[in-house]
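User: Some background: our group keeps a shared notebook of sequences we're curious about, and every so often someone picks one and asks for a predicted structure to add to the entry. Today it's my turn. The entry only has the sequence so far, pasted here. Could you supply the structure so I can complete it?
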Amino acid sequence: MRIMTMKMNPRTDHVRRTFLAGMLAAGAMLFSSASANAEEGPILIGHYASMTGKEATFGQSTDRGIRLAVKEINEAGGLHGRKLELKTYDDKGESQEAGKAVTRLITDDKVVAVLGEVASSLSLAGGAVCQQFGVPMISPSSTNPRVTIGRDMVSRVCFTDDQQAAALAVFTKENLKKTRVAILFDQTQAYSKGLKDDFVKSFKKLGGEIVSEQAYSGGDQDFSAQLTTIRAAKPEVLLIPGYYTDGGNIAIQARKLGIGKDIPLLGGDGWDSEQLGKIGGADIEGAYYSNHSAPDQPGGNVSQFIEKFKAEYGGQVPDALTGLGYDACMVLFDAMKRCHAATGGLKGKDLAKAIAETKGYPGVTGTITIDKNRNAQKPIVMVQLKNGVPTWVANVDAKIE
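Assistant: Of course. Here's the predicted structure to add to the notebook entry:
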């Protein structure tokens, strides 16, 4: 390719240089003005969640918890008089939409930090964007270990699946006194596959036996083939490490196929929704699942939080995801205060570092300490569904080797 060259007239060149210098000066003034304005007005934080879609209660519960936290923070004066402003975008429970929502929060809204998601697959998508742009993210309740691995901008205020799986294994062996487990898992969800794999590993270490592993795809309506195979394996417990939408339907079909009440159903925190009992009805009654908190658990700050939430939301009782949304926002604000005190600002790397240094924060879902991998260390709560309501059974503090 031939490159065209042009000799510049000295007078024209002088005019051009003067014009560019003026533009650069103007740009510097605009940047300076923007920087000054950055210390004025509301501080924007973002939230991306499944506000619609088949797991909509996840996003809606979390968003209500975050909004209650923002209200309390603002009523207390905010950060040096600056109020927090929350922007929530619906990702519809889809990974591609999650990435778009986080990109919009960062590039268009200029949020200082992002909260989300509940589903681990969506946090993996959103976390990649936050890592790319250097904006800190706190997941309230994504439990798959990969969410924070290799991402120094991403933290969480919940336990991880390996911790949860170990607790489920201990509870099955020591509390339920069962040794033969069948598993029906969602092969399309990182959450479900990870929880299944970690449970198998932990349960076998305790001397337990996995008599059958069957897979389905989220949203399936017919589980009869898998459940027939499971029934033939004669399990003592059926573990369903998926989301509440499928858990309730599987319970109905399992009971119809003769997997009786003498075989407890067991789930993870993906079952945490008021819809679980409504979907599964009598067939899900008595089922157990691991969770982050329970309305009636002894000690801690749960009871006070429930009363505040009921006063704000017309008597509605919050679920554990609501509490985690509240905790995620409060942990973020606590880190913002420490970051601003130390550096005078809220730059991405500085704020992410402050979040990762959280120690002993008194959250409503337990005392939160962020470890070296940016995961929260806390006990796992085991609940049983009674009259459609999760009821505290035990706290299990399983150790991961």
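Suggested note for the entry: The mean pLDDT is 90. Residues 10-37 form the longest helix (28 residues).
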